Amino acid sequence: VTLTVMSLSFTILFFLIGFTLSETIADSYSRSLKDKINYNYMMNTTQEENITNVLRQTEDTGWYTKLGVRHVSLYGNDEKILQAMLVAVEEEHYGVKYLIKEGVDVVDIQSDGVMLSTTFAEKYGYKLNDKIALNVLSDSVNFEIQGLYESGGMNNEHIIVNRRFVEFNGEADMYLVNTSNASLVEGMENVYVVNLDSVGSALKKTMDKSLGIFKSLCILCVFSAMIFNINIMYMKSSEEHRNLVLMRALGIGKERLTKNVCIECLFMLILTIAMSIGVYYILINFAMKLMFSVGVNIKMQNIFISLFIALVFIFGIFTVPLTNVRKSKLFDTLREMV
Predict the structure, then answer these.
(1) φ, ψ for residue 189, nearest 5 deg
(2) What DSSP string describes 168-188?
(3) 89-140 pLDDT tens trace
(4) In this structure, are residues 307 and 243 in contact, taking their beta carbons and an 8 Å threshold?
């Protein structure tokens, strides 16, 4: 039973990796973005009116946050020079809110306060209420970390300040936009637009191209595992036939033998699905945490595919034993064995 379960589990695992890996990673990343950030477009332009004349901070046109952006540097806790972006938020153009994990939002910070992304803070060892010194042009300015926000893996290096407290000459303006009206965005001129809703599909296409050879290897592994499972099915059917004959000779009824075979079948099915999906989840979750710092989401259709493959093989393995149980002349086989 152990060998059969392991063989079936690896067959399903190779299939899932070869044919659902890119989709699972892309879907998990897209879902994570929607859960962690409140915008679906990022825009850059040198002509502010191209955006503000279209988006009016209403539900019909969409909400937006205007950011002034400038490159800065700072010393990390290990004394290494870090590169970041100083981002100033104007309260009157703060329609898309950050998801605050600790501390206060940008509109509530004090004059010397900044917000860091949780990703940036964890990477470089910063905590709430720590002091940091930012090098802006030739000046060094001291700030206190008063808030930590969720970046969702986007713009992790942004250090947020309130423009009301900071004299700020930005190098460029960026807009974080939340709108369901794609036609408004498409009609903007001289605006560089990043549609975050399409990031997942773009990631999937990129992975599909790079995983071509890997898919071929997975197909080969699945084919090899299928041949191995067929051999196991043949060996198991012969062994099960002899065992059933002996148990019938000892007076065990057909109904009880049928029940025992069905219970074994169900046990193998549950164990196979749990092992294959479990190992698949662990592998993908490790990869997602390593690459994007997000969790994994496995679609129900992948579980149903695994269930179908397991059912096909287990049905093939147990068809012969169930047929033998229902036979009425098993004692002829017993005489041949003697």
Answers:
(1) -110, 145
(2) ---SEEEEEEE-S-HHHHHT-
(3) 988 889 999 999 999 999 999 888 999 999 899 988 899 999 999 887 677 8
(4) no
